[in-house]
Specification:
152 residues; alpha+beta; Beta-Lactamase; globular
Length: 152
C-alpha cells in the first residue's frame, strides 16, 4: 500500500510540475495579441520611442517567454530584447536546422501582410533551443512579430 501511495504521489507531483511549466509559457493567441498591442503603441508614440520600449527586458512588451521584435522588410532588426541583435541585419539568420527564418518571415509578410511561421530559436526563459510559433504583421512597412515557444 505504501508503494502504491508513493507511485501516485510521484505521478501527481509530475503532473503538477508539468502544468506549472506550461502555465509559464505564452500561447500563440497571446503572441498575436502582443503584436497588436505593439502596433497600437507604435501608432500612439511613434517609431523611436516604441522601438526603445519594445527592446526593454523586462519591459511592457515582454511577458514570460513572449516578446516583440520589429524589423524592416530587408531584415534590419529595429527592436529586440537581445541588444546584440538590435541594429543588425538578420536576413541571413538560420535556425539550428539551417532554415532561413527571417527570409521566410519577410516572404510571408510581403505575400500576406500577416501570418504565422515556425522556426527554432533560443528560449530566454528555459535556456534551450525550442520551436517558436511566430505571429507576424506588417504595419508602416515594418514587420512586427512575437512568438510562443513550445518544447520539442
Amino acid at each position: 500500500m505504501n508503494r502504491l501511495f508513493a507511485v501516485i504521489a510521484c505521478l501527481v507531483t509530475g503532473l503538477v510540475t508539468f502544468a506549472a511549466a506550461a502555465a509559464d509559457r505564452g500561447t500563440p493567441a497571446e503572441a498575436e495579441a502582443l503584436v497588436k498591442k505593439a502596433i497600437a503603441y507604435y501608432q500612439k508614440v511613434g517609431r523611436e520611442k516604441a522601438m526603445d520600449e519594445f527592446s526593454k527586458a523586462p519591459g511592457p512588451f515582454v511577458d514570460r517567454d513572449l516578446y516583440v521584435t520589429v524589423m524592416t522588410m530587408q531584415g534590419d532588426s529595429l527592436a529586440h530584447i537581445n541588444p546584440k541583435q538590435r541594429g543588425k541585419n538578420m536576413i541571413e539568420f538560420r535556425d539550428p536546422d539551417g532554415k532561413y527564418a527571417i527570409k521566410e518571415r519577410v516572404q510571408i509578410a510581403q505575400k500576406d501582410g500577416k501570418g504565422w511561421h515556425e522556426f527554432k530559436f533560443f528560449n530566454p526563459m528555459t535556456k534551450h533551443i525550442e520551436i517558436k510559433r511566430n505571429y507576424l504583421e506588417v504595419y508602416d512597412n515594418l514587420l512586427f512579430s512575437a512568438g510562443a515557444f513550445r518544447p520539442e
